[in-house]
Fold this sequence. Notes:
The structure is a single chain. The chain has 196 residues and is α+β, with helices and mostly antiparallel strands. The chain has helices spanning 7-15, 30-40, 60-67, 72-80, 97-100, 107-112, 115-139, 152-159, 189-192; strands at 52-57, 83-90, 143-147, 164-173. The radius of gyration is 18 Å and the shape is globular. The chain starts with 6 loop residues before the first helix and ends with a helix. The mean pLDDT is 95.
Amino acid sequence: MSLVLDRAAQDLLFREARTANTFTDEPVTDEQVQAIYDLVKYGPTAFNQSPLRITLVRSPEARERLVQHLAEGNQAKTAAAPLVAILSADNEFHQELPELFPHFPQAKDLFFAERSARENSAGLNAALQAAYFIVGVRAAGLAAGPMNGFDSEGLRKEFLDDDHTPLMVVNIGKPGPDAWFPRSPRLAYEQVVTTV
């Protein structure tokens, strides 16, 4: 069975897509970010909880504050990217459930009254949304450089609050010179899929 998505779109979103390590200085506009969000907001989450929160880092001052919390190997590429997004999980997502899950408003208190239950669910579902966000960046013709080499607590204190857990930092823009490392191997179908 073949895929419905045409070959060029498959390549853009998956086969040719890689983590970018350099970027041009061409700006990423608010309109592009809005278009990405308007596409990826439809990705599935449990109870439609939608816990992903996106903090855009644009100004030189904010960029300087961000870079100091990154692992040394990530600092230069983040300093040079035209836009950086901090993706975090909102551990108080349940406050929005009466609006997002209106046919079962009791879910807010029935399943998510305990902070630990919210943190577990928010982390998993925001990570799922983050994957959609990366694909959305690619769909916009931009390159994404997702990273998790950072001081989580430092990042939280600098840009977020105690109700948000940082998941990843994503550099965004048009790929620059030598943007790609060689493609690493992937597991074969037989190594991943088991039929029972």
